[in-house]
Design a protein that fits this description.
By secondary structure, the chain is of the alpha+beta class. About 30% of the residues lie in helices and about 20% in strands. The protein has a domain of about 60 residues. Helix 2 runs antiparallel to helix 3.
Length: about 100
């Protein structure tokens, strides 16, 4: 049986989920919450999410586009529905996921 300590990426994700109020007794997300919302943001232009690969693409207004890997559906859903996407990004996404510039 695998030791939980062997998976530092999983530990990091669990810490992030704890910061945003993850509750294992509550559904992680509702299917409709994974659809991109029509939203006006000074920071984020468009969000895309692949629920099969857990990859999230963020198209920023002024900084280009980035692909973020291993993003949990709940994190995408909360980011998608955040009152301030820029603030949510800075608190819960930036530096917490492997990323690469794609555009």
């Amino acid at each position: 049986m695998a030791n939980f300590n062997q998976f530092p990426e999983l530990q990091k994700h669990i810490r992030v989920l704890g910061k945003i109020g993850y509750n294992k007794n509550k559904p992680i997300y509702k299917h409709g919450e994974l659809s991109p919302k029509d939203y006006t943001s000074e920071c984020v232009d468009v969000l895309e999410y692949n629920e099969i690969t857990f990859e999230m693409t963020v198209h920023f207004e002024k900084r280009g586009s980035y692909l973020y890997k291993n993003v949990e559906p709940q994190v995408y859903s909360e980011f998608n529905n955040a009152g301030s996407r820029g603030q949510y990004f800075n608190l819960y996404v930036r530096g917490n996921y492997e990323s690469q510039r794609i555009g």
